[in-house]
Structure formats: C-alpha cells, structure tokens
Amino acid sequence: MAAAVIYWSGTGNTEAMAKAVAEGAGVEAVSVSDFKGDVASYDALALGSPAMGDEVLEESEFEPFFAGIESKISGKKIALFGSYDWGDGQWMRTWEDRVKAAGAVLVNDAGIISNLEPSDDILAKCKELGKALV
Fold this sequence. Notes:
The protein has helices at residues 13-25, 62-69, 90-101, 120-133, and strands at 3-7, 29-31, 44-48, 51-52, 56-57, 77-84, 105-106, 112-115.
C-alpha cells in the first residue's frame, strides 16, 4: 500500500506529530511545500495541519493544497492530525466532516489533536495512527 504523510507546521508541534505518524507508517513525512507527488497514486494519506485563526486549516499553503486534493480522495484511507493553541478542536471536526463528505475513509473515525507541544502519549497515538493507516 502506497502511503504519504503530508503536513504544515509553523512551530514544530505538527511536524513532531507528522514524524511520529510517518514512523508508524514506515514512510517519510513531507512538508506540504515540498510534496511533489500525485495524491492519486497513493492508497492512504496522513494529513497534518495546525489550527489557525478562527480554528481553520493553515490558510496560505495547507488549505489551498487540501482544497486541491479534496475531489481526489474518495475511497482513500485518510488520517488527520494537528496541533492547536486555543479553542476546542473545532478545526479538526470541520476537517473530519470535509474528508467524510469527500468519500474518504477516516482512520480511527477521528483525527489526533495536541494542545501545543505533543506529549509522549500523543506521539505514541500518532505512531499508532501511522500503523493503522497502512
């Protein structure tokens, strides 16, 4: 099964989560600005973005990337993860709904979120998410 871990991180928190997911999946984590692949060639994708602004996906790179692949993820296994500083995780619930509406299969039925720096427990959950993805 071909899998990719694609993320955006401003402070390193979501990047740490991406690396843990990638370790569990046995693949490399790639920042969204460096991703040059075609999502159509992957069976499974782990996507990571922190909450920004009014609890939305990062707006300059990640949101445009996700909007561009949203119509191509039907039937694919998708794992979501990301960090936040304030709020209650609404950005992740909205993102989960978008993934399901696009016809993708959400791994574990929910994304993993971390308030600021991910704890060892959160990183362990991220590794398990990577294993479940593949």
